[in-house]
């Protein structure tokens, strides 16, 4: 095969396809994760660590944000949770000796897989301007340099502070205070690329940017629609909840362009039935929808419900609609006017099948719609999600048992970070409470979201970039633009557990601040500390790590931020007032502040003591009340949109394999999809492969086409025939981020359109 693609440490010539799975989890999953755990941690540490995941007084799984069941299994088992834990609890180390050995050019030549495999970061490091290597620096000097760089800016808005979603509530709260105390709202986060569209649609229609169901609601739903989500890989613990719902008679509809194994059938390794009898069939109906066709699907459901209502009555929940909603007539008119013909071409699903799904909705006593990235990363995602809400409102599926919206979050504390104020467009009342608590005046001007931050860096408007976790370079769209934008900066600072590309692609100077993760024991001046996180269902609970940290003298995220607060605010006018050293030494002090600033956290410490859970209030769920302008839930009329695919082109979605956590690559296999030994593959419908003049296994470049005329190219992908609608294709993120144009974002939410990229395939010229 041809030469190695850029930044790839995987020998892609080995990639092969075999054994596509129709069943998720089961015994192979257990064995696979134990192998990874053993490689990273050794047997003793694996057992010690995996037994504590999501247990009372253990640590919160850094895997996903799906909530725990009230009655937990000992070692509630989740393959990908185990991999996420192993990745963090690894015994491999990236020490100053590693950086002495590997120059910055050398690091740049590797991909995220290789970088992540090197282990945990142990020492603060600095890359001086023009230097070839990172060198060690003391904690004091490193933090002082960050503080000085910030204080040296002409305007606080020249700094950008990114957050990924693993940061604890305590660290996040202090971090947003650091940023606002410094004088800016430039707080982009991973959420901007993730569930921002959900937040935008939900705040507008139901007055809260979160889901409205509990785990009990999932168990008790009559109908669960799971759209644009691959739970078998990305939220495996959700499968147990779905199994339970099935056991109680629920119907499950899977809406996805791909027949994902986890949606079809589940073998629960915790029960003999799962292992011996081949598991539970999950989806009763699989809607193989075209990419971006979901708005049409939900309009079709709404249209059918209204048609039957007009014919026979008895479909709509009129008392609910009258008492609790506005906008019904305009919505009804919009879907009455839309043509079945258009709904069919948008979804690629025959009218009979659309009506069959709609009938399941009509006859359901309690319906929940779950979704993830398949619904949030399109140009028209906000409209799509508004139409999801419309359908639920028609039958009063909001604020009653077994019913509601369930945006399934990604990172384990991404929802909590938002609750703590990590948001570039903070609400006025939040700022007011912050001002009162810390005796300062927070800036009111809205800050940059992720895409706007990249533009600001590109255009020379930002000079310092600080990241609280994450991998900004690899996770963001338009990789080449982002790499050039970062190179424009005076200083880039990464607070990280593991090495990744964002440490290799930097500003003129760069600082790495290693930090403790969820699994590490965190001992501060005031003794052993706990932190808290919020799951997808607004439940907040404590997390305490037990492992010996990777190195002595490592600082927690809280400690890093508390020290920065002291240094940045020293002698500064209008700075927040608090005892930073005391907050660093005992996090109960931070929770005390939170309890006075953030609604729902009253008596925070008492509520999480003894490992209890604090359930945040959720007005739509708890009392059918909606914090919108009218105080009611809002039906919206949305013009039907769906992607147009030019002739000879494919619409590409960029998604996760089974062996990765976002930009962290655990291995080269995508077991359920039957792809082994490589990641540079593009899954295409067999008929399209031939129609486009290719054969399976051909090696092609993917070239994205966007109205700005810039050529974006991802090199050397192997074509794999896969079950996906005609005209649609799929390939892995982050290798394909180079193809997503920076300005191709969702209306309103600004989320990059990672599930909707027009590409053409170009035959790869054999290397000479
Ligand atoms: N093991 C593991 N767990 C994870 C993560 C991980 O990388 N690895 N990431 C975490 C994060 S941050 C997040 S946000 C979540 C992500 O969880 P998911 O959203 O499940 O992740 P993706 O791989 O992006 O999968 C998108 C799914 O939507 C489908 N899809 C794509 N486009 C469309 C569409 O237009 N319509 C419909 N109906 N379906 C579509 C795809 O085929 C795929 O099944 O998982 C979290 N958990
Ligand atoms: N093309 C495309 N792009 C996408 C997506 C897509 O589906 N397609 N999905 C988007 C989504 S949903 C998301 S959420 C983003 C993810 O974007 P990010 O959150 O920025 O990326 P991650 O890969 O999750 O970040 C991993 C890094 O976080 C650091 N880390 C891990 N744990 C901790 C911790 O406890 N503390 C600290 N300080 N650091 C830690 C480690 O150094 C690790 O290398 O990517 C987005 N980008
Ligand atoms: Mo995410």
From TrEMBL:
CDD domains: MopB_CT_ydeP, MopB_ydeP. Pfam families: Molybdopterin, Molydop_binding. Residues 120-496 form the Molybdopterin oxidoreductase domain. It comes from the Bacteria. Keywords: 4Fe-4S, Iron, Iron-sulfur, Metal-binding, Molybdenum, Oxidoreductase. InterPro entries: Asp_de-COase-like_dom_sf, MopB_CT_YdeP, MoPterin_dinucl-bd_dom, Mopterin_OxRdtase, Mopterin_OxRdtse_a_bac, Prok_molybdopt-oxidoreductase, YdeP_MopB. Its cofactor is Mo-bis(molybdopterin guanine dinucleotide); [4Fe-4S] cluster. Residues 650-757 form the Molybdopterin dinucleotide-binding domain. Belongs to the prokaryotic molybdopterin-containing oxidoreductase family. This is FdhF/YdeP family oxidoreductase.
């Amino acid at each position: 095969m041809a030469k190695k693609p850029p930044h790839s440490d995987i020998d892609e010539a080995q990639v092969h396809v075999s054994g596509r799975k129709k069943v998720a989890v089961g015994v192979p999953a257990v064995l696979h994760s134990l192998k990874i755990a053993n490689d990273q941690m050794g047997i003793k540490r694996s057992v010690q660590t995996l037994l504590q995941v999501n247990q009372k007084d253990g640590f919160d799984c850094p895997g996903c944000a799906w909530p725990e069941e009230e009655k937990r299994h000992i070692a509630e088992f989740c393959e990908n949770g185990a991999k996420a834990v192993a990745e963090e609890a690894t015994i491999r180390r990236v020490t100053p000796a590693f950086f002495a050995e590997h120059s910055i050019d050398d690091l740049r030549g590797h991909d995220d897989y290789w970088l992540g495999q090197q282990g945990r970061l142990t020492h603060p490091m600095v890359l001086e301007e023009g230097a070839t290597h990172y060198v060690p620096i003391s904690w004091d000097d490193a933090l002082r340099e960050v503080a000085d760089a910030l204080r040296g800016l002409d305007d606080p808005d020249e700094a950008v502070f990114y957050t990924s979603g693993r940061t604890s509530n305590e660290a996040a709260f202090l971090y947003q205070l650091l940023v606002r105390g410094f004088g800016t709202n430039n707080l982009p986060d991973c959420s901007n690329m993730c569930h921002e569209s959900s937040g935008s649609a939900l705040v507008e229609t139901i007055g809260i940017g979160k889901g409205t169901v509990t785990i009990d609601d999932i168990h008790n739903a009559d109908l669960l629609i799971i759209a644009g989500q691959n739970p078998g890989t990305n939220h495996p613990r959700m499968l147990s909840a779905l199994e339970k719902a099935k056991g109680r008679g629920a119907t499950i509809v899977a809406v996805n362009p791909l027949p994902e194994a986890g949606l079809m059938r589940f073998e629960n390794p915790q029960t003999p039935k799962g292992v011996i009898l081949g598991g539970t069939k999950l989806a009763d109906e699989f809607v193989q929808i075209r990419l971006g066709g979901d708005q049409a699907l939900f309009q079709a459901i709404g249209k059918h419900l209204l048609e039957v209502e007009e014919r026979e009555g008895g479909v709509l929940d009129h008392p609910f609609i009258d008492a609790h909603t506005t906008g019904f007539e305009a919505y009804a008119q919009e879907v009455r006017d839309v043509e079945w013909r258009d709904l069919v071409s948008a979804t690629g699903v025959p009218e009979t099948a659309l009506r069959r799904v709609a009938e399941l909705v009509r006859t359901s006593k309690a319906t929940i719609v779950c979704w993830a990235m398949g619904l949030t990363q399109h140009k028209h995602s906000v409209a799509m999600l508004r139409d999801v809400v419309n359908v639920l409102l028609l039958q009063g599926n909001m604020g009653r048992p077994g019913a509601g919206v369930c945006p399934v979050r990604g990172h384990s504390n991404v929802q909590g970070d938002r609750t703590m104020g990590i948001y570039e467009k903070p609400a006025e009342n939040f700022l007011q409470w912050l001002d009162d608590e810390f005796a300062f005046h927070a800036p009111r001007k809205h800050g940059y979201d992720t895409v706007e931050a990249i533009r600001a860096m590109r255009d020379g408007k930002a000079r310092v970039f600080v990241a609280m976790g994450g991998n900004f370079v690899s996770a963001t769209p338009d990789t080449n633009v982002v790499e050039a934008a970062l190179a424009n900066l005076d200083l880039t600072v990464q607070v990280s557990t593991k090495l990744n590309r964002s440490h290799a692609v930097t500003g003129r100077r760069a600082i790495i601040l290693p930090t403790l993760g969820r699994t590490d024991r965190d001992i501060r001046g005031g003794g052993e500390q706990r932190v808290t996180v919020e799951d997808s269902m607004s439940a907040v609970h404590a997390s305490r790590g037990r492992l010996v940290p990777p190195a002595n003298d490592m600082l927690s995220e809280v400690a890093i931020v508390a020290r920065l607060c002291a240094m940045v605010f020293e002698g500064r006018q209008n700075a927040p007032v608090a005892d930073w050293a005391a907050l660093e030494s005992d996090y109960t002090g931070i929770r005390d502040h939170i309890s006075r600033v953030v609604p729902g956290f009253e008596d925070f410490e008492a509520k999480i003591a003894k490992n209890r859970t604090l359930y945040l209030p959720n007005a739509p769920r708890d009392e059918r009340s909606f914090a919108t302008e009218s105080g009611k839930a809002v039906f919206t009329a949305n013009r039907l949109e769906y992607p147009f695919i030019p002739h000879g082109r494919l619409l590409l979605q960029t998604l996760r394999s089974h062996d990765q956590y976002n930009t962290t690559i655990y291995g080269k296999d995508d077991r359920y999809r039957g792809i082994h030994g490589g990641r540079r593959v593009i899954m295409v419908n067999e008929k399209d492969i031939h129609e486009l003049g290719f054969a399976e296994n051909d090696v092609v470049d993917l070239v994205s086409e966007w109205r700005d005329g810039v050529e974006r190219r991802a090199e050397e992908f192997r074509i794999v025939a896969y079950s996906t609608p005609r005209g649609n294709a799929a390939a892995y993120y982050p290798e394909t981020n180079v193809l997503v144009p920076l300005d191709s974002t969702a209306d309103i939410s600004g989320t990059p359109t990672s599930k909707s990229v027009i590409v053409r395939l170009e035959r790869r010229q054999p290397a000479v």
